[in-house]
Amino acid sequence: MAHSRARRNPADGRAPVRRVAATVGVVFLVIGVLGFIPGVTTYYSDLRFAGHDSEAKLFGLFQVSVLHNIVHLLFGIAGLALARTVSGARTFLVGGGAIYLVLWLYGLVVDHSSGANFIPVNGADNWLHLFLGVGMIALGVLTTRGPNRR
To answer: Is 35 helix (H, G, I), strand (E, B) or coil?
Structure first.
């Protein structure tokens, strides 16, 4: 009798919310690193630690600074650390999504050319933060619903 050797999926046995949180964490880590790479980040020579005068743009679209990139890296580390448990993963996704919705509101009300825009954010960032906030909360809720919840 032939024995088929199916390759084991390393995510087998992990709750969906844990896999999703870990994936989101990895994406944040990658984005944080990419923010420090010239070419991927346009106007790299204009990268500042913080503030609206940092004209560096990730993928030529999203305004970033050193602080902005560090926040992405920290979010990624938090996502990976919290993905170790179901409750931690859900907290990361729902809580992180709520933080991104607050950041979206901040981006709507702050004068983008003022010192109050210390992160900094632009219009493209605002849309991304809205998408991330809604998406992370939805993932945190939808992956922990139902009878198969672990």
So the answer is: coil
Decide if 87 is inside a domain.
Answer: yes
**CA separation for the pair 19, 40 (Å, rounded):** 27
**4 found inside a domain:** no
What SS3 state is found at 42?
strand
In angstroms, the CA 84 to CA 19 distance is 9
The model's pLDDT over 54-112, given as tens digits with 9 standing for 90+, comes to 889 999 999 999 999 999 999 999 999 999 999 999 999 999 999 999 999 999 999 88
Q: Tell whether 149 is covered by a domain.
A: no
User: Where in the sequence is the domain holding 24, given as residue range(s)?
Assistant: 16-142
Has residue 148 been placed in a domain?
no
Q: What is the pLDDT of residues 126-142, one digit of tens each?
A: 999 999 999 999 999 99
d(CA 75, CA 70): 9
Phi, psi at 117, each rounded to 5°: -85, 65
Task: Give 142 or 4, the one with higher predicted confidence.
Answer: 142
- The answer, yes or no, to whether residue 6 has pLDDT greater than 60, is no
pTM, whole model, 2 decimals? 0.83
Q: How many domains does the chain have?
A: 1
